[in-house]
Amino acid sequence: MSYPSHPYSYSIAIALFLLAVLPTPFRAGAQQLPQFALTPWTLVEMNPAATGAQDELIFNGAARRQWNNLPGSPSGYHISAHMPLPAIQSGVGVSLLQDQIGLQTQLEATVTYAYHMPLGRRWTLHGGLAAGLFQSGLDGSGIRTPDGQYPDGGGLDHQDGFLPNGAVNATAPLLHAGIMIDDEVWQFGTAMRYAQGGNLKYSGADEQAAMSIQPHLLAHASWSWETGNAVFRPTAMFLSDFRHWQLTTQLNLIWRERFILGGGYRGLNEDTRDALLVTAGLYISERFLFLYAYEAGLSELRQVHNGSFEVMIQYRLPSTVSKGKLPGIIYNPRFL
């Protein structure tokens, strides 16, 4: 994708770069970033720098069920739309992400912006921000304690001032930042998710009943190699909350610009070995893409679940926004 030069290109790019990589404080907390297997196909969900990086208006929708048949296991969905604004070397988008883990529900709603700056004739540098709201809800009525009172007629009491007896929720501002550099073959990027950090205090609960928002560092790389009717795309994605570290590697094959088949592995060492990934997809048309991913567990949890699965639909529409005013219709008698 090509962009016109801009007098403030370097200033804007450097500012976004600093926002993405400056050290960010973090607090102890649970892993909050939902785990999706199809991220290489919906990169904008993880790195806002990918917003509007292609010459198309793109809609994504994905749903995931992790550790199927395990009660309270994570499940969620995300939907997004983003588009380029070539006239100002930018891209904009919106995103909604929901994650359910046991009695806790997390919801994110963000608006994303990215600036795209050409580096010579080959490379493009992208810097992006996503800002919005983060909401966490906890259903305290599902908690059970050894000393609690749970009569059949209602009126439960956990006998613990720290635990809420009913549903509580908390809302806080949200900020993600990222950078990315790519050409027609290579792509490298990094992002800071939940860069704002901080604590969420649940309304109607004890003051100590708060959830820490844990910043996450994401780094990704991919390569595209075309030969005959096949395109091979190896990808690697590294994720850390500064206490735990995880790596997911995948190799996807696109055959005749229609069929997709891939495999992958999630694990950094013996302690973080998690799953084997299988991906299959079909370009239903030039605009519609359908993808399915299955994960066979490798950790100790595999004894109590039968894998994780994910489905995704993507719709692409050529974008004409901000490309200038179209010329008027010329009526030529030859074609009347």
What does this molecule look like?
The chain has 336 residues and is mostly beta strands. It has a single domain (9-23, 38-324), classed as monomeric porin ompg (Porin, Beta Barrel). Helices cover 4% and strands 50% of the residues. The protein contains 1 helix and 17 strands. The protein has one helix at 9-21; strands spanning 56-65, 75-85, 90-101, 104-119, 123-139, 167-182, 186-193, 199-201, 210-212, 216-223, 225-227, 230-240, 245-255, 259-266, 275-283, 288-297, 308-318. The chain has a 14-stranded antiparallel barrel with strand order 1-2-3-4-5-6-7-10-12-13-14-15-16-17. A two-stranded antiparallel ribbon has the order 8-9. Strand 15 (275-283) and strand 16 (288-297) form a beta hairpin. The longest helix is centred in the first third of the chain and has 13 residues, at 9-21. It is globular. It starts with 8 loop residues before the first helix and ends in an 18-residue tail after the last strand. Residues 1-31 and 329-336 have low confidence and may be disordered.
Please provide a brief summary of the model.
Helices cover 4% and strands 50% of the residues.
Strand content: over 45%
Strand order of the largest sheet: 1-2-3-4-5-6-7-10-12-13-14-15-16-17
Structure classification: mainly beta
Largest sheet: 14 strands, antiparallel, barrel
Give the CA-CA distance, first to last residue: 37 Å
- What is the name of the CATH architecture? Beta Barrel
**What is the mean predicted local confidence, pLDDT?**
83
Total of DSSP H or I helical runs spanning 4+ residues: 1
Radius of gyration equals 23 Å
Helix content: under 10%
Order of helices and strands: HEEEEEEEEEEEEEEEEE
CATH fold-level assignment: Porin
Task: Indicate how many domains the architecture comprises.
Answer: 1
Q: What general outline do the C-alpha atoms trace?
A: globular
